[in-house]
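A quick aside before the break. I want you to see a complete sequence-to-structure record at least once, exactly as it would be stored in a machine-readable document. Don't worry about memorizing anything.
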Amino acid sequence: MHVKSSIDLQPVIIQIPRPAIENCYCLGVMEILDSFIPHLIDHNRNRMEFEVLGYEEDPREIYEIPEVRQFFQRFFQIYPGLFFWLNTRSHMMLLMAIYVFKPIRVDNNTTISNTDFQKFLKEGFIGLNLFCKKYGLDPDPTNKAIKQWMIER
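That is the input. The structure line, written in tokens, reads:
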């Protein structure tokens, strides 16, 4: 697993190799995120993006690949602080929702049902609050960032 980052406010990209995806090995990503605690936690709030490596030759969309979906479904399930980290200024929130819940096509766009979107938000916010409580953090900056993302969505 690799982390790529540049200037402030740019996303921090965690690259996940195909073997980790195929083996549903989420621990590597969790260790990277946990390595930001406590010194870089506020600096990296809502900046994380995940790049899946090793499927460049696969003609399917990345969210159509079962093992990719299984990896992120598992990761979303076992890592409650995910909303704290996800980049809200990019496609990452919606992509994570599409990984976790069944994607649907609406007006030539890929999304998830409103019911699934509500489940995604509910589970994500519950996890965010648990994570923030555990580390003594204020969830409001993330709540505001997600609210802004939803308005722009």
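Two observations worth writing down. The chain has seven helices and five strands. The mean pLDDT is 93. We'll return to this after the break.
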